[in-house]
Predict the 3D structure of the following.
Amino acid sequence: MHSMQRYGTILQEVNIMRKHIKGNVSLIGYLDWDLQKFHGDDFTIHNGSSQNAYLIEEEKTILMDTVWAPHQFEYMENLKKEVNLAKVDAIVVQHGECDHSGTLPALMRERPDLPIYCTANAVKSLEGQWGKHGWDFHVVKTGDELDIGNGKKLVFVEMPMLHWPDSMATFLTGDNILFSMDAFGQHYAVGEMYADLADQDTLWNEAERYYANIVSPFAPMVTKKVKEITAMNLPIEMICPSHGAIWRNDPLKIVEAYGKWAADPTEDRITVIYGTMWHGTEKLAHAIADELSLKSPHTIVKVYNVDHTPKDDIAYEVFRSKAVAIGSPTILNGVLDSVAAFTYYLKSLKLMKGRKAAVFGCYGWSGEGNKVLRQMMTDAGFDVADTEIRCSWNPENDDLAQAAGIADALLEGTSAASDDAPAAGADSGKWRCPCGYVYDPAKGDPDNGVPAGTPWEKVPDDWTCPVCHLPKSAFRKVD
Ligand code: FEO
């Protein structure tokens, strides 16, 4: 027997079991207690996770997604215990990322004729990852329905860029369940299955940490989609995401939380971040934190060494912070690569603009670090204060005393007003979609009826991104 098969057989009864949810819906996903990293080694997991897949057994038998390939043997073996594979009528693939589609090839090897319901972009992502096998794709758009018998239907809702172009959600009428895919999920292994039974502090911290690191770059889309879901007046009684707990009691609470986090997640919180070589910049960081706490006792102040804490944990703090102090010693005419990498990550998250930042750092002879760091934080969307600490060699008392000025600068005018909304008015520059596509007036989009030379303001209002099909309103001006 293949070693993975043996491993799968040992674990199958433990981590994949049918768990009844509601009506004729069961959870058949993988509860991943031991997951440490996600997206390769990019994202740190603290409380396990799950790949939630679902089984709906009405007159038609429908699978909702699969699990990550390392767990394919457990998924397939347990699925066969629950249903006759030959009798499955269709699979809905809500998103092509490997953690949900990784077992699709194994499933399709056994049922190559199985109809797959997914978005047009999911056909691209599935074939791009798993190859072209002539699978029976049925492309769906928002509002399309699939009758599954017993008076129930699946209604599909495209969710482009939440968080891939191919993402969608599915609403099951009758049971009134919204299968929301990655949206509203958490990387949190919840044995209790339901949000109302889970540890609430961990649940909400993981939900917001997930939003901050995975969803926040697409905040304009969140705002739009929350409004759209609300306007559809779907009688949502339960939200079943593809990671973490199922929202059963007051399920719209997480939808409302997404609306708030997309609009303004900041709290009375300031984060101090630093890298250090010989502890001089670390002393400055601690002095700044002390001054912040002295001057504003109710403000939550936290201090992180970027080399000792995962970037996603620090980013979660920054996400909630009204201001940030960040420091690095000067090295090789710049800053420590760990500090530079963190500012690069902050920039990629496209956090709400206008938060205050201040820079600090020690140097021996040339001292360019502050200037470099100031530019990096400006590029990441922060309003960087003129006040800084630029300390020659180790901090003396007069250097440490400058921490008070940094604290004043960060505590002053930290309303963090958002200017993240798409700019309005006439402009003929380039505009970027959340998916990364850039509209260039010089090139236009001739394949979709926009001739080269068409300025942005002349692009028709019903034109959509040629890559992910988001509307024009989702685009932001390229600086
Ligand atoms: Fe959970 Fe985007 O995959």
The first strand starts at residue 19 and ends at 22. Residues 95, 97, 99-100, 163-164, 182, 242-243 surround MU-OXO-diiron (CB under 6 Å). The longest helix spans residues 200-215.
